[in-house]
Design brief:
Distance between the termini: 51 Å
Strand content: under 5%
Shape: globular
Largest sheet: none
Radius of gyration: 26 Å
Helix content: over 70%
Number of helices: 23
Oligomer: single chain
Length: 518
C-alpha cells in the first residue's frame, strides 16, 4: 500500500466511526449538551431518570450499581464548559418572577392573620396532674389548641419541605406523576403530623383528640398551600383565603376581635374557611390535565418544545431523597423554637404571654417571614450574577473572588432591607400593643435570615448534607448555651452568628468549584 493511499485511508477513518464505542461514551454523546453544562451529578441523574433509565437498566447496560453512580461517572468524564465565553448580558429578572417572589412572602405571613382563631376555639387542654406547677417549663404549659397549632406549624415546616421536593421532582416526569406525588405525599405528611400531635398530647397528659384535630387542620392547610405553591398558583391560594381573611377583618373592625359570647363558633367558622377552601383549590389545581396545560403554556411562553411525558413512576428512592429536605426544615424550626418558646425555662419565671407559645415576642418573626419572598428574589439575583461571572474571562481566582463579592453584596442588601423593616416594626410595636424586641433578638433574626439565604444557595449547589451539618451544629450549640444558663436571646444570637459564619465558609468552598457558577 502506497503512502498516499495509507494517508487517505487514515484520514477517512478519522470521523464519527472512529469515536469510542464504549456504552458510557455513547451515552455521553447522546447527552452532550447536558453533560457539558451540568453543574453537579444530580442534574445528570435527574435527566437520566426523566428519560426512563432505572437502576436495573443502568447496571445492565453500563455496569454501574445505580443511576446516580452512572451520573457521577458522566460528570467526571465530560469536562464542564460554560454555555458561552462571550460577554454575558447583565442579569435580568422577569417581571412575572419578581411579582411571584414578592407575593410568596405575603403568603407565608397570611396564616398569622387567621391562625389566632385556633386559639379561640375554647379548647384549653388538660394539664397533667402531679408535680410542681412552678417547676414546669413554658413548653409544657402550652395547652390544647395552642399545642396543636405549635406542632403543626413547626414540624409541618419539615414535612412540607419534603412534599415540595417530591412535587418538583414529579414536574420533571409527567403531570400524572406530579398530581400523584403532591396528593399522596401531602396526605402522608398530614397523617404523620396528626400522629405526632396525638403522641405529644398523650406525653404531656392532654386530650389527644383536641390537639390532634387542630394539628390535622393546620397540616391540611400547609399541604394545600404547598401544592398550590409548587404549581405556581399563588394567586389562587390568596383568593381561597380571602373569605377567612375578610371574616377576620370584619370581626376585628366591628367587634374588637372574635365575638366573646360566640367565640368557639366564630373561630370554627374562620378555621373551616381558611383550611377548607385552600384544600378544594389544591385538589382542583392538582388534576393532571390542568398541570399538563400549565406546563404547555409555560413552554410556549419560553418558546421551547415541551418534553414528552414519561410513564415512569417515582418510587421509594424519591421519598428517601426527600427526607433530608424535611430534616432541613425541622432543624430550622427547632432552632427558632428554642428562642421563642423558652423550653428549658420554668414558666413561673417568664410572662404569661410568652408562656402561651404563640404570643409574646413570637410576633418578631413576622418581618423575617414576610421577607421570604425577597429572599427567593435574592437567590435568583445571585444565580443570575454567578451565571454572568461564568461567562467572563480571567483567572479562576479572580472569577471566584468576584463571585464571592456578588454573593456578599446581595446578602448585605437583603439583610439591610430586613434591618430597616425591624426598625420600623420596633417603632410601631407599642401602637399595636406588642412588646418591642431587643436589638440582640433582632440581630439574631438578621443572622438567621442571611443563613437561610446562604442555605438556599448551597442546597442549589448540591450541598444539602453540608447545610444539614451546619444547622445541626448550630442547634447543638444553642442547646449547650441554654444548659449553661446563658439567657435565651443571647444563646439564640450567638448560635445564629455561628451558623452564619459556618455557612459563609461553606459558600466559599462551593464557589471554588467553578462549575457552581453556571
Amino acid at each position: 500500500m502506497t503512502a498516499p493511499l495509507r494517508t487517505a485511508l487514515t484520514a477517512a477513518q478519522r470521523g464519527p466511526e472512529r469515536r469510542s464505542s464504549d456504552p458510557l461514551a455513547v451515552l455521553s454523546r447522546h447527552l452532550n449538551q447536558d453533560c457539558l453544562h451540568a453543574l453537579q451529578p444530580q442534574e445528570l441523574a435527574a435527566i437520566l431518570e426523566a428519560e426512563g433509565y432505572t437502576d436495573a437498566l443502568i447496571q445492565e447496560r453500563y455496569g454501574d450499581p445505580s443511576v446516580f453512580a452512572c451520573a457521577e461517572r458522566l460528570f467526571q468524564l465530560v469536562p464542564y464548559r460554560p454555555p458561552t465565553l462571550a460577554r454575558a448580558a447583565a442579569p435580568t429578572l422577569r417581571p412575572g418572577s419578581l411579582g411571584r417572589d414578592l407575593l410568596r412572602g405575603v403568603i407565608y405571613l397570611l396564616p398569622a392573620v387567621w391562625s389566632p382563631a385556633v386559639l379561640a376555639l375554647g379548647w384549653n387542654g388538660s394539664q397533667s396532674v402531679g408535680g410542681d406547677a412552678s417547676q414546669s417549663t413554658s413548653l409544657s404549659s402550652i395547652q390544647g389548641a395552642g399545642l396543636g397549632l405549635l406542632i403543626s406549624s413547626f414540624f409541618g415546616w419539615g414535612w412540607m419541605q419534603s412534599v415540595a421536593y417530591l412535587g418538583y421532582l414529579g414536574l420533571a416526569t409527567s403531570p400524572a406523576e406530579t398530581a400523584r406525588m403532591l396528593r399522596w405525599a401531602g396526605a402522608g405528611a398530614v397523617a404523620l403530623t396528626g400522629v405526632l400531635a396525638a403522641a405529644v398530647a398523650l406525653w404531656l397528659g392532654q386530650d389527644p383528640v383536641q390537639v390532634g384535630v387542630v394539628a390535622l387542620s393546620i397540616a391540611c392547610y400547609l399541604a394545600a398551600a404547598t401544592t398550590l405553591l409548587v404549581l405556581s398558583s399563588e394567586i389562587l391560594l390568596v383568593i381561597s383565603l380571602l373569605p377567612a381573611l375578610t371574616w377576620t377583618g370584619l370581626q376585628a373592625a366591628f367587634s374588637g376581635g372574635v365575638v366573646p359570647d360566640n367565640a368557639p363558633q366564630q373561630a370554627a367558622a374562620v378555621l373551616a374557611l381558611a383550611v377548607g377552601l385552600p384544600v378544594v383549590a389544591a385538589l382542583y389545581s392538582s388534576q393532571p390535565a390542568l398541570i399538563g396545560a400549565m406546563q404547555a403554556a409555560a413552554a410556549r411562553a419560553r418558546g421551547v418544545s415541551l418534553a414528552a411525558s414519561s410513564a415512569r413512576r417515582l418510587g421509594w428512592a424519591a421519598f428517601q431523597r426527600a427526607l433530608p429536605h424535611a430534616g432541613y426544615g425541622w432543624l430550622c424550626a427547632g432552632f427558632l423554637s428554642l428562642a421563642l418558646l423558652h423550653p428549658f425555662t420554668p414558666s413561673a419565671q417568664i410572662g404569661a404571654a410568652d408562656a402561651a407559645g404563640m404570643l409574646g415576642l413570637s410576633w418578631s418573626l413576622a418581618p423575617l417571614v414576610l421577607s421570604m419572598g425577597v429572599l427567593e428574589l435574592s437567590v435568583r439575583r445571585i444565580h443570575a450574577a454567578l451565571k454572568q461571572q461564568a461567562g467572563t474571562t480571567g483567572t479562576v481566582r479572580s472569577i471566584v473572588r468576584s463571585s464571592a463579592w456578588q454573593v456578599l453584596k446581595v446578602c448585605f442588601q437583603y439583610t439591610a432591607l430586613l434591618f430597616f423593616a425591624y426598625v420600623l416594626a420596633r417603632l410601631l410595636a407599642p401602637e399595636f400593643g406588642f412588646q418591642r424586641p431587643s436589638w440582640l433578638l433582632v440581630l439574631g433574626h438578621l443572622h438567621v435570615a442571611a443563613a437561610l439565604l446562604l442555605s438556599g444557595l448551597l442546597i442549589n449547589f448540591g450541598a444539602l448534607h453540608r447545610v444539614l451539618g451546619a444547622w445541626a451544629l448550630a442547634l447543638a450549640a444553642q442547646v449547650a448555651l441554654l444548659l449553661a444558663h446563658v439567657d435565651v436571646v443571647g444563646s439564640y444570637a450567638l448560635s445564629a452568628g455561628g451558623v452564619l459564619a459556618l455557612l459563609l465558609a461553606l459558600m466559599w468552598l462551593a464557589l471554588m468549584d467553578i462549575r457552581n457558577l453556571g
